[in-house]
Amino acid sequence: MIKVGIIGCGTIGSALSLACRTRFREEVTLEAVSDIDLSRAQRLQRKLHPRPKILTTDEIIRHCDLIIEAASTTLVYEVVKKALSLGKEVMAMSTGGLLGKEKELFELAKTHRSCLYLPSGGVVGVDGLKAAKMGKIHSVSLTTRKPPQGFLDAPYVLKHRIRLNDLKDEKVLFEGDAAEAVQWFPKNINVSATLSLAGLGARKTRVKIIACPHMKVNVHELYVQGDFGSFYTRTENFPCKENPKTSRIAVLSAVATLERILKNVKMGT
User: Fold this and answer.
1) What pLDDT, on a 0 to 100 scale, did the predictor assign at position 165?
2) What's the CATH number where 45 sits?
C-alpha cells in the first residue's frame, strides 16, 4: 500500500482525502494530512474513517511515499524541493509557485529518480500542448473569465482598488504574460502556470483575465499555434460551492491525476 500525505485541507485536499478513503482504498493508505490552519485539518480528520494523523509538513514528507501539495503558491516550492530531494513522489496543485524554479526541480526529480506530477487543473488542452511541444509552438494564449467574487482578494485588484461589486459589464482586469498573471492573481490563475510549464514558458504565454458580473461559470479559452497547425479549447467550469476561486474540474483533475499515478494503464498524451 502506498502511504499518502496531503498538505492543504481546503477544497482540493479534502476531495483527494475522501478519494483515498473510497475510490483508491485498495491502493493507498491516507497516512496524514496537514494545514496551516489546524482547525481546518481537524475538521477534515473528523470526516474520515479511519482518521488520518495530523502531522507537520516536514513529518509528512519524511513518512509518506506520495506527497500531495494542495496548499498555496507560497508553500509549494519548499514542499516539492524537500520531497524530491528525499526521492519521494510528489503531486503539486499550486503550480504558480513553481514558475522560475522549474529547471531546479526537474533536475532534482531526475537526480533522485522521483516523479513530480502536475495536474491539468481547470483547463482543457494540456495534452495537445504537450504533443505540440514535440514540434515547434509559435504562440500560446489564455483568456480567463470568472465572476467578480472570485477575484476579490487578488493583489492586483486590491492594489488598483477595483470595485468589483459595482461592475455592470465585463471588465478586463489584466493583460500580460503568465509570470505576471500568477504574481497578481496567485489564487486564480494556476492554469496559466501549468500551460507555461507544458509549453513555451511563463514569459511567452499570454494571459488575459476578465471579470464578468453576469457569469456563473469560470471560463478558460486556450489558443495554441504551431507547426502542427492550431487548436482552440473553451472550458466552462462550475465554481466549487466551497470556494468560488476553484473550478470543479480542477478538483476532478486532481483525483484523475492520482488515479493515473496508481493505475497501470495511462491514457492521453
Assistant:
1) 87
2) 3.40.50.720
* DSSP 8-state class, residue 203: G
Q: For residue 246, what is its C-alpha cell? A: 476553484
Is the pLDDT at 190 greater than 80? The verdict is yes
**Other Cβ atoms closer than 10 A to 252:** 17
Structure confidence by residue, pLDDT tens digits, 65-123:
999 999 999 999 999 999 999 999 999 999 999 999 999 999 999 999 999 999 999 99
Same domain flag for 59 and 168? no
Of the listed 63, 160, 214, 220, which one is catalytic? 220
In this structure, are 110 and 7 located in the same domain? yes
Number of domains, the chain: 2
Within-domain flag for 212:
yes
Q: How many other CB atoms are there within 10 angstroms of residue 23's CB atom?
A: 14
Residues 92 and 172 in one domain: no
DSSP H stretches of helix in 119-161: 126-132, 155-159
Domain that includes residue 81, residue range:
2-121+250-262
Same domain, 111 and 136: no
d(CA 80, CA 8): 14
Q: How many CB atoms lie within 10 A of CB 27?
A: 15
Share of the chain above pLDDT 90, in %: 86
pLDDT digits (tens, 9 = 90+) for 201-222: 999 999 999 999 988 899 999 9
Q: Is 63 a catalytic residue?
A: no
Q: Could you give the CA distance from residue 269 to residue 267 in angstroms, rounded to a whole number?
A: 7
> How is residue 244 written as a grid cell?
468560488
Residue 13 in domain = yes
Which pairs from 261-264 meet CB under 8 Å and 24+ separation? 261/66, 261/89, 261/91, 261/115, 261/117, 262/2, 262/24, 262/27, 262/28
